[in-house]
Design goal:
The complex is a heterodimer of chains A (418) and B (220). Chain A is α+β, with helices and mostly antiparallel strands and 418 residues long. In chain A, 18% of the residues lie in helices and 49% in strands. In chain A, α2 packs antiparallel against α4. The mean pLDDT of chain A is 90. Chain B has 220 residues and is an all-beta fold. Helices cover 2% and strands 53% of the residues of chain B. Classes of the chains: A alpha+beta (418), B mainly beta (220). The interface between A and B is large, with 40 and 39 residues.
Chain lengths: 418, 220
């Protein structure tokens, strides 16, 4: 087999004499000399000057000749140009691989996009939105950018001052960009490239972006998608644990009865014996009374008949109502619920000593007492749901903030669009 | 394959196809086959250097049919130049594989009456971007109009202009990836139609090795 063909040709700039390396010879038609910035016609063996010196200039982020692997393919930077629209400038780097052809890398305020011309434009459907390859693109901005400077090789004659009408449509991480010139419509499909991938590809540091770009993927959406499986598993586990807990709890009503508060001194009443069968149980005590501008306070103790160990709790409630200038008002409740947790199995007596308005106003108050043995606890379940949903809720909020920032830069902000 | 000697320099010239033209690789004479005789109709320049991975004798596949690149013309216009490779298919048909701006397009010559409206070389010159043509019942739109001349040539070719002659060439975009070219050829307008092709779909063999690059399907 023959020796490999050298892939760059060195020619002398007819304007300043500097060596110019041609990297896409035969595919490119013009080159702008890196030394004197004169634009040259390289479509024929005799190189000719197209345009003289360009005044305006900004520093290249990627040097001509830099090679890097992007999306699994190696490319060489062969050309660079800057475009400006109302004072705002970005760079477009032309990439070349002799087996693949030309691609683009755009650099805009720290954001990078990898672009390829859409050859089959019949698959681009334009209406209020743009449809392409199963994605819906929303219009983002329109403008008429002008070429500010050009360096290196291009496959068409780029000239400073060249102007196109452009329209950008976004569907992160993609953007479809339409450029209109006389009689020609060119669609370019751009894909957002993470800055880290550019740094890795070309082995150099780049500036961190300070803004949100039109088609930058929402990092919070990505994070949400990443945690979704974990979220679902956690939710499933919490629901399963609760379902098992509910299924296993007996919630058996204990025979208690009523407690009467009348004009006399508070007196102790004992209910029992009550048999608690569950090894360790949560128990729900309820008290109800039809109160009329009255209050009830019950001092309760669940006493183990064998050990004498006592679990004390208080159940208090009050209910007041009346009428004032705003109409009828009420305050408080007619009932109260107390939970007695971690009660070991055994025989218990419930000791209740109550007080209330009835002690002083002479009206008897009948308090209905209930005790459910071994109820299912719900508190931990609600707490675990709160814990599970806190981070996703935060991400959802951040995601919408990010989208708001993205669309605040659009010519077609959603508020004016819809 | 048939062997001849160049009427201008005597070097041996081989024809792999029934193409009427060939370029003598020694004296750069453009040769025309007339009956069994070879005639020199002028000289052509060598194709200037480029870094294309294509070269003569590269074999490939297009729509399931095998072809081989047997010749090339380098064409130039006011704002650029490109290569057109003459592809000889296994069924003796010819195609043109044009290589421009890093893209490949394969076209085949069509009967002249497949084109509406009919054009002459003179009216072709007045075509402008956006104009509509129908080729073989498919709608095309003019994308550009160029005055073209040959910069150089090599190998075997289906046609060859008079040295230094300029002709009008009009590119058209059709539905999907379809592409067509109308080219003034003497008093007639030739019609070529085909489509864009991906480098990888041709499964090329015998490619030029390019320093520092490897073909897409070979690991570097």
């Amino acid at each position: 087999m023959n020796a490999p063909v050298p892939t760059a040709k060195i020619v002398a700039c007819p304007s300043c004499g500097a060596s110019i390396k041609l990297r896409a010879l035969g595919q490119s038609v013009m080159v702008a000399c890196a030394s004197c910035r004169t634009q040259l016609d390289v479509s024929r063996p005799d190189i000719r000057i197209i345009n003289a010196y360009q005044k305006e200039w900004t520093k290249l982020v990627l040097p001509l000749g830099a090679r890097g692997v992007i999306k699994g393919q190696k490319y060489e930077v062969v050309g660079a140009m800057a475009r400006t629209v109302s004072g705002y400038q970005w760079h477009e780097y032309l990439l070349f691989n002799p087996y693949i052809g030309f691609r683009w890398l755009t650099y805009d305020a720290g954001h990078w996009n990898f672009g390829e011309m859409v050859k089959d434009t019949s698959k681009v459907v334009v209406s209020e939105v743009v449809l392409h390859a199963g994605r819906v693109y929303r219009k983002f901005q329109a403008g008429s950018p002008t070429v500010s400077w050009v360096l290196g090789e291009f496959y068409w004659r780029v000239a400073v001052g060249d102007q196109v009408l452009s329209r950008d449509y976004v569907s992160p991480p993609y953007m479809l960009s339409l450029e209109k010139t006389k009689g020609e419509h060119t669609w370019t499909l751009l894909e957002y490239i993470d800055r880290a991938d550019i740094e890795k590809a070309f082995g150099k540091d780049t500036d961190r972006p300070s803004t949100v770009s039109p088609n930058q993927p929402n990092p919070h959406s990505q994070r949400l998608r990443a945690i979704l499986p974990v979220l679902l598993v956690a939710l499933l586990v919490a629901v399963l644990i609760q379902a098992v807990t509910v299924a296993r709890s007996k919630a058996s009503p204990m025979p208690i009865g009523t407690y009467s508060i009348d004009g006399r001194k508070p007196e102790q009443q004992v209910y029992g014996p009550l048999t608690f069968t569950a090894p360790i149980s949560l128990n729900e005590f309820t008290a109800y009374a039809a109160l009329d501008n009255d209050w009830v306070e019950l001092d309760c103790a669940l006493v183990n008949a064998k050990t004498g160990e006592s679990r004390n709790f208080t159940s208090a409630f009050s209910f007041y109502s009346g009428r004032d200038s705003d109409g009828r008002w009420t305050e408080g409740d007619n009932d109260d619920t107390s939970l007695i947790a971690e009660v070991p199995a055994g025989t218990y007596n419930l000791v209740v000593e109550g007080a209330g308005g009835g002690n002083s106003n002479g009206r008897a108050t009948l308090v209905h007492l209930g005790l459910l043995h071994d109820v299912a606890p719900w508190r931990n379940f609600w707490l675990s749901l709160l814990a599970i949903f806190t981070y996703p809720a935060l991400l959802l909020w951040r995601r919408s903030r990010f989208e708001a920032e993205r669309w605040s830069e659009s010519d077609y902000a959603p508020s004016s669009d819809d | 394959m048939s062997s001849h000697s160049c009427p201008a320099c005597g070097a041996s010239v081989e024809f792999r196809s029934a193409a009427p033209h060939a370029v003598c690789s020694y004296c750069r004479s453009m040769l025309l086959r007339r009956d069994a005789k070879l005639e020199s109709i002028g000289r052509v320049a060598e194709v200037p250097d480029d870094i294309s991975p294509l070269q003569l004798d590269v074999a490939g596949i297009f729509d399931g049919r095998r072809f081989k690149l047997i010749g090339r013309a380098r064409k130039v216009w006011e704002q650029g130049s490109w290569s057109e490779w003459c592809a000889l298919f296994s069924d003796e048909r010819f195609g043109w594989l044009s290589e421009a701006q890093g893209e490949l397009v394969m076209t085949f010559e069509q009967p002249r009456d497949s084109l509406t409206p009919r054009v002459t070389p003179r009216t072709l010159r007045d075509a402008s971007p956006g104009d509509a043509f129908v080729v073989d019942n498919r709608r095309f739109q003019v994308s550009d109009v160029k005055e073209v001349e040959w910069l150089g040539a090599e190998g075997e070719l289906l046609s060859a202009p008079k040295p230094g002659a300029r002709m009008t060439s009009v590119d058209l975009r059709g539905p999907g990836l379809e592409f067509a070219t109308l080219e003034a050829n003497g008093d007639e307008v030739s019609v070529f139609a085909g489509r864009y092709v991906e480098f990888s779909e041709c499964r090329f063999q015998g490619l030029r090795r390019l320093d520092g690059w490897s073909p897409p399907d070979v690991d570097s």
